[in-house]
Amino acid sequence: MTNILISGASIAGTATAYWLRRHGYTVTVVERAPAIRTGGYKVDVRGAALEVIERMGLLDAVRARGTDMRVATYYDAAGRPLAAMDADLFGGRTGDDAEIMRGDLNELLYDLTRDEVEYVFGDSITGIAEDGAVTFERSLPRTFDLVVGADGVHSNVRRLAFGDESACTRDLGHYISICTVPNTLGLDREEAVHAAVGRTANVYSTRQDTAAKALFMWSSPPLDHDHRDVDGQKKLLARAMEGVGWQVPALLEAARDAEDFYFDTVAQIHLDRWSKGRVVLVGDAGYCASPASGQGTSLALVGAYVLAGELATGGGTEGYERELRPFVAANQALGPANVKGMVIGSRAALWFQLRMMRLLPRLPGRNRMIERITGPIFRAANAVTLKDYAR
């Protein structure tokens, strides 16, 4: 096996391309977008994923592009501050954990691979035969030894090889939307949050960013929507957040004009196996833990490292699954628990959460309370021992 095709040039795809190339494979990456995706929202890199980044020689660059967030403040519907907390605690980060904009990280990975990997933009896979013959929307057919689906939660490769995504999607009962908005609040490396029952709005601006990101999350039964119908998604967001106070009406107005609008269900992908024939899945395509886990980027980085290493050292896709399954399970377990703290289901629970935030700095058991927040994330992020595949 020498010639490998990767579908998707986001973090899972670019990281997999790097490690496969390091092990001597010939790698082609096909991406539906016309160019590498920049921008996006902030993501965390923790535990084993930090070790992967360090082995890539990117740790200093990642830290240099860190968000440098300082504080998160909760506001009531009238705009009065209710509680504030350290940004790292708000994000569940401890120790050496890093936070970076998704587009910045992807750009670093792309720059690391662009001279050694063939990138084909503006195209996508339409068919994968048992003998490795692959057809594309625009390019001529080609044959590969292996096809890697690194194309996200709505993976085209997974659909072609495993069938409709409804069979492997586990809905967590919430939706999320993110977009760029003007920084009208004058935020400087800080987050402003308003929580209503069943609905949360968050605006933040990172270091050296003149604009801001607005994030909305809300509880909802399944909505009938097309994940490529952006105008329809914007209407669903406006309907879901209708009647919420604070800055939400202005943010919804700004979201109508956003060019980078993102909208999706908060869901996980669960599969009994991540490979079938000449196809293997990595990252969200195979085991999305949902945005609520805070571990999607780390799963992509670690998954890319382990997949390439196992292929190169004879473990194959079986070794990949054996090494990674416990790590994936630990991180997927975070999603259902975390989403309950991100979107509060009752007035009583909302009152209690805000009161605990105000009291936390003065509580005698403060360290134990903090460990309850950060401990599960820390343990999940470190729930794998990385092999040294270079030996």
From TrEMBL:
* Start and end residues of each FAD-binding domain: 2-313
Which is one GO molecular function term here?
Answer: FAD binding
Against InterPro entries, the record matches this protein to:
FAD-bd (IPR002938), FAD/NAD-bd_sf (IPR036188), FAD_aromatic-hydroxylase (IPR051704)
UniProt name for this protein: 2-polyprenyl-6-methoxyphenol hydroxylase-like FAD-dependent oxidoreductase
Q: Which organism is it from?
A: Nonomuraea thailandensis
| Lineage of origin | Bacteria, Bacillati, Actinomycetota, Actinomycetes, Streptosporangiales
